[in-house]
Amino acid sequence: MIQKYDEVTVKVESIQKEALCECIAEDGTKVFTRYAIPGEVVKVKIFSINPYYYGDITEVISPSPLRVVPACKYFGQCGGCDLQMLPYQEQLRVKKQIIIKEFQREIKGFDLNLIDDVVPSPKELYYRNSVMFRVDPQKKKIGFLKRDTRILVDIEECKISSELINYALGKIRAQEKFPPHIFKVRSTSTNDVVVNQIETKEFEDRDVIDKVRVENLEFYFKISRESFFQINSYMIPIWIEHIRSEIRNSNYDKSLGLDLYSGVGLISFFISDLFEKVVGVEISKTSVKNARENVEINGLKNIEILEGDVARCIDTMPMGNIVIIDPSRNGIEREVINSIVKRYREKGKPKKIIYSSCNYETLIRDIKFFIDSNYRVEKITPFDMFPQTHHLELVAVLSE
């Protein structure tokens, strides 16, 4: 029987959700590891036996022909990337297969042909516009935690963070006064970079203003350090254009567009030309403040930003034919789904739901409720907003 700290030889069977690699030991025991490729034979050291066997790779005995040299020397140490051992096109294929397996398991009879291929990112590296760095001032370390541990991995460069963020990291590491605690670095498409939560000689701790262009539309967004903004600036226009095309191709009346969990206004602004009026709803006071400032900055007249908990105010909000929903990783609250379904049954609205999510587990959970309430899934489109990692942004389109 396999014990903790044993080294065992396993064959890699598949890559599952969260990029966990399912393997089979010589005695038939199922073992999970990371950074392996199906078909490989690897040696792992078991670090956990409850409830399943987990091990770290100590040797790749029989490497896959797909295996490539990772771009980052910290790959497998820090907890950021988990797919750098694969060529990018294979990463996309693996991600789609994970999504397919999850839909197949969770929604009985789901038509898997509705799941599109993963839309690739224009940049595979250096794409992140915002990064939170952890600090150990005693050991003079700046970096990220090793996955599933409290061990801080000291890094000099992050291959998925923008060049500006890496430039700032180098300056901060070189300064005489070492950072005392965690800090965030944010860069913009206009080549601005700020460092939040610590004092530095070269970088200000302030809000940033970023610029996003989609087709012939261009807007500026003021973003406070507490506000959320999509991290892949190169994928934002592609993702936004997909949402716009789904709205454009709908024949429903477009007098009102409802944008739930609207943040600083990113989606609201880029759909404002497609509706007579857009109402955005957001609970974060900072994001609401930013969104209202952004309305003024961009001179938009047909957008209203409401501050409030979507779950508490959904019943009294106006409802149009099309609703766009972009919640946090927690997904949509049950009260919100129930209210949308109730309004649909009583008033016939909304007729179309465009649901964007960075967590396919909560997306699938919520879709099941909508399907049970007579909505149908038109399609699911995954966007590789997070290359080199197992994460995806998915846009589900549902209609009556």
Please provide a written account of the structure.
The protein has 8 helices and 19 strands. Helix content is 24%, strand content 29%. It has 3 domains: 61 residues, OB fold (Dihydrolipoamide Acetyltransferase, E2P) (Beta Barrel); 203 residues, Vaccinia Virus protein VP39 (Rossmann fold, 3-Layer(aba) Sandwich); 81 residues, no CATH class. The N and C termini lie far apart (54 Å). The protein is globular, with a radius of gyration of 23 Å. Helix 1 runs parallel beside helix 8. Helix 7 links the parallel strand 16 and strand 17. It is of the alpha+beta class and 400 residues long.
Shape: globular
The value of Rg in angstroms is 23 Å
In total, the number of domains comes to 3
Largest sheet, spatial ordering of strands: 15-14-13-16-17-19-18
**Percent range of helical residues:** 10-25%
Count of individual helical segments: 8
What would you say about this model in short?
The protein is an alpha+beta fold. The chain is 24% helix and 29% strand. The chain has helices spanning 88-106, 163-174, 236-248, 266-271, 285-298, 310-313, 334-347, 360-372, and strands at 7-15, 21-25, 30-33, 41-48, 53-62, 130-136, 141-145, 152-154, 183-187, 193-196, 208-214, 217-223, 256-260, 277-282, 303-307, 322-325, 352-357, 376-383, 393-399.
Task: Jot down its keywords.
400 residues; alpha+beta; OB fold (Dihydrolipoamide Acetyltransferase, E2P); Rossmann fold; seven-stranded mixed β-sheet; five-stranded mixed barrel
